[in-house]
Structure formats: structure tokens, C-alpha cells
Amino acid sequence: MPKYVIEREIPGAGKLTADQLRTISQTSCGVLGKMGPQIQWVNSQVTADKIYCTYIAPNEDMIREHAKAGGFPANSISQVFATIDPTTAEQTV
Predict the structure, then answer these.
(1) Beta carbons of 12 and 51 less than 8 angstroms apart
(2) DSSP states of the chain as a string?
(3) Cα–Cα distance for residue pair 21/51, rounded to 1 Å
(4) How far apart are CA 7 and CA 73, in angstroms?
(5) Alpha-carbon distance 52 to 76, whole Å?
(6) Long-range contacts of 43-46 (CB under 8 A, 24+ apart)
(7) Does the pLDDT at position 16 exceed 90?
(8) Average pLDDT over residues 9-26
(9) What is the mean pLDDT of residues 6-33?
(10) What pTM did the predictor assign?
(11) For the chain, which terminus, N or C, has the lower number of CB atoms within 10 Å?
């Protein structure tokens, strides 16, 4: 199943409180529960004015449906084709 990174422009995101982040998470999980198991939230990173979310879904349309139902922006959606980290440098072909 494809993996996607979603960029959400949310001014002041880095100043959201733990309670506000919990509420956002609960909203997202509630929408996901209604949409079924085809779409999964992997994790999110909060920066000063954006939240970057990783999702597994069959297509971008499902990502957009989740954003609309949850009231979240989805300013850009990019499919992930590979993931690398420091151990990638150690792998031999």
C-alpha cells in the first residue's frame, strides 16, 4: 500500500499545547475509524508553522477525504517511494 507525506500549514503549530495536540489526534483517529482500515496514520512531526504527517492509504483521494472530514488542511501530498536513514549507508548490494 502506498505511503504519503502530507504537509499541513497551520500557523503557530509549534505552540499548540499537549491538550490541543491530543484533541487534533482524537479528531483524526475518529475520522479514520469511520473510514475503515484502508487508511492508516503512521506519525506526525510538528514544526513552527506546519505539521508533516505520514499516512498509508490506497490513493491521494482518500488522504484528501480524511483531511476534509477532519477539518485539516492538506497543502501538499507526496507519495513516498523510499525511506533512508544512517543504516542505508551501511547496506551492501
Answers:
(1) no
(2) --EEEEEEE-TTGGG--HHHHHHHHHHHHHHHHHH-TT-EEEEEEE-SSEEEEEEE-S-HHHHHHHHHHHT----EEEEE-----GGGGG---
(3) 11
(4) 8
(5) 10
(6) 46/13, 46/14, 46/16, 46/21
(7) yes
(8) 97
(9) 97
(10) 0.91
(11) C
Cβ–Cβ under 8 Å, residues 12 and 80: no
Cell numbers 507519495: residue: 79
Predicted confidence (pLDDT) at residue 90 exceeds the cutoff of 70:
yes
Q: Cell numbers 492508516 label which residue? A: 40
Burial class (CB in 10 A: 0-12, 13-18, 19+), 35: middle
- Edge-to-edge order in the sheet of strand 3-9: 40-46, 50-56, 3-9, 76-80
